[in-house]
Design a protein that fits this description.
Number of helices: 15
Shape: globular
Distance between the termini: 72 Å
Largest sheet: 8 strands, mixed
Bound molecules: NADPH dihydro-nicotinamide-adenine-dinucleotide phosphate
Strand order of the largest sheet: 2-1-9-8-7-10-11-23
Helix content: 40-55%
Strand content: 15-25%
Structural class: alpha/beta
Number of strands: 24
């Protein structure tokens, strides 16, 4: 049983307090006890990070490339093993956990090469005899606060660019998923890196997380999680003028037009709504369906939802694992009651399920007869619940898709190039999908949204440099050579 959740100044450390984590597929399965960092340990992590960052930056790009490549390669080689750990602690099917860890490895190997591509610009000065160059330097110490739903991939797409560009990291993962946080920390800290370059400080968000993001010794904060926590982080960060990047909630629309390929539309909608038990920021939670195909689409979607096998995350036949925790399950069931009270028709699912082991199982739910102004269509539920909204035209569908405080992903199912092009240009979202699920993105291009979904520069791809580096413009007067 793993006993710690703290790695600071190059060593594993015990904590004054611990938490106990259990398997959401089987609450009798104790995963481990995890140490929680104290204020003193957090300060030590920040001290060591500041020291190590300077050494790491001075070590140069080949070193950073090699370390990131080794981390990524180990993650890919051990994706089945660590993926199973994720399945056990978070509840996603083991195959999804494996895919997540492999993807995390790809973030590291991609950013390994990005370290080598950190090239600046040269400019002619407007003054004769002066040379100008523009270079990217590290920001310094980056605080990373991450959620439980992608417990390895999300921190990976933050840690990899942070290290690639010469920064140090202090990481506060979600307390629900500390087994995989310990596994990732083990891989990173076994590399030949300065002690304290990478620190794991587990603890409750409102305590350790809050202290970390309020620290004036943090140079940049990258956060993924809920909008409410994001707002409070932004308020704290501005007081210290700390650089900030946040990915938060969503309410992603998938528009299904009358000319859509129906089989494809049903599979994209069901996959994006229920994959990862709906606990994805890219989940399709509003299905805006043209009235001429509405009834047949809904019938087929309900069939698809009812055909999904809900079960233990480590059972090979499972397509939908449990939700992550009892609190999340209770919140989901409350949203089912809310939808019914608002007048929506619950066509299937939305019930707690019994399985051979005691866990947080829930049947995938489809609501129809919903309107875009209902709470179930405005608030992020983070649940295996999707809502169908009937529409009479493409124009109305686009307006409804855009009528949300969020704007992460938006999709359209259509065989019309004209509609697809118009939607791509006019959807108010950071990522647009045409004839694809709203979930499922690549690792080498930017990811992020608009409105309340994102704040600050984009994550991933070459755009990540905007957040993880500061630009320095140098003017050099060459002088007289004679
Ligand atoms: P939170 O936003 O509460 O948690 C995300 C991370 O922030 C966790 O590491 C958490 O720590 C930490 N945290 C919590 N409070 C603070 C704080 N005051 N200061 C600094 N860090 C803090 O999300 P939850 O896990 O509670 O999920 C609640 C809802 O948020 C979900 O139902 C979903 O709607 C949304 N969510 C969205 C995600 C996305 O990818 N868009 C991801 C996760 C959640 P800890 O949990 O250990 O206390």
């Amino acid at each position: 049983m793993q006993q710690t959740g703290i790695h600071i100044a190059g060593r594993w450390d015990a904590g004054a307090t611990q938490i106990e984590n259990r398997n959401p597929s089987d609450v009798s399965d104790l995963i481990g006890h995890y140490a929680q960092a104290s204020s003193e340990q957090l300060e030590e992590a920040l001290d060591s990070a500041h020291r190590a960052q300077k050494i790491w930056w001075a070590a140069g790009v080949q070193k950073r490339h090699d370390v990131l490549m080794a981390i990524g390669t180990e993650l890919m080689n051990r994706s089945a093993e660590i993926g199973e750990l994720i399945a056990r602690e978070e509840g996603k099917p083991a195959a999804e956990g494996k895919g997540e860890v492999y993807r995390a490895g790809q973030f590291f190997t991609w950013f390994a090469a990005e370290a080598l591509r950190n090239q600046g610009d040269l400019a002619e000065s407007v003054r004769t005899g002066v040379e100008v160059d523009v270079r990217r330097e590290p920001v310094g110490v980056v605080a990373i606060v991450s959620p439980w739903n992608f417990p390895v991939a999300t921190p990976a797409w933050k840690i990899a660019p942070a290290l690639a560009f010469g920064n140090a990291v202090v990481w506060k993962p979600a307390n629900l998923t500390l087994a995989s946080a310990v596994a990732l920390t083990d891989i990173i800290t076994r590399q030949d890196i300065p002690a304290g370059l990478f620190n794991l400080v587990s603890g409750a968000g409102r305590q350790v997380g809050q202290r970390l993001i309020e620290s004036p010794r943090v140079d940049a904060i990258s956060f993924t999680g809920s909008v409410s926590v994001g707002r409070s982080i932004a308020a704290s960060a501005i007081g210290n003028m700390t650089r900030l990047q946040m990915e938060m909630g969503s309410k992603n629309p998938l528009v299904i037009m009358d000319d859509a390929d129906l089989d494809l539309a049903v599979s994209c909608a069901a996959g994006a709504a229920f994959g990862g038990t709906g606990q994805k920021c890219t989940a399709a939670s509003r299905l805006i369906v043209h009235e001429s195909i509405h009834d047949v689409f809904v019938e087929r979607l309900v069939e698809a939802a009812e055909a999904l096998t809900v079960g233990h995350a480590l059972d090979a036949s499972t397509q939908l694992g449990p939700v992550v925790s009892d609190a999340q399950l209770q919140q989901n069931l409350t949203y089912i009651e809310t939808g019914e009270a608002e007048g929506a028709s619950l066509l299937c699912g939305g019930k707690r399920l019994e399985r051979a082991t005691e866990g947080y199982y829930m049947s995938p739910a489809v609501f129809s007869d919903t309107h875009n102004d209902m709470r179930i269509n405005r608030e992020e539920m983070f649940a295996p619940i999707t809502c169908v909204i009937k529409t009479g035209s493409y124009e109305e569908a686009l307006n409804m898709a855009n009528d949300s405080e969020f704007g992460l992903t938006a999709g359209i199912m259509t065989q019309s190039l004209a509609r697809a092009s118009h939607f791509r240009a006019n959807a108010r979202a950071g990522c647009v999908m045409v004839n694809l699920p709203t979930a499922g993105t690549d690792y080498h291009v930017p990811f992020g949204g608009r409105g309340a979904s994102s704040y600050g520069p984009r994550e991933q791809g070459s755009y990540a440099a905007e957040f993880y580096t500061v630009v320095k413009t140098a003017y050099v007067a060459a002088g007289d050579p004679l």
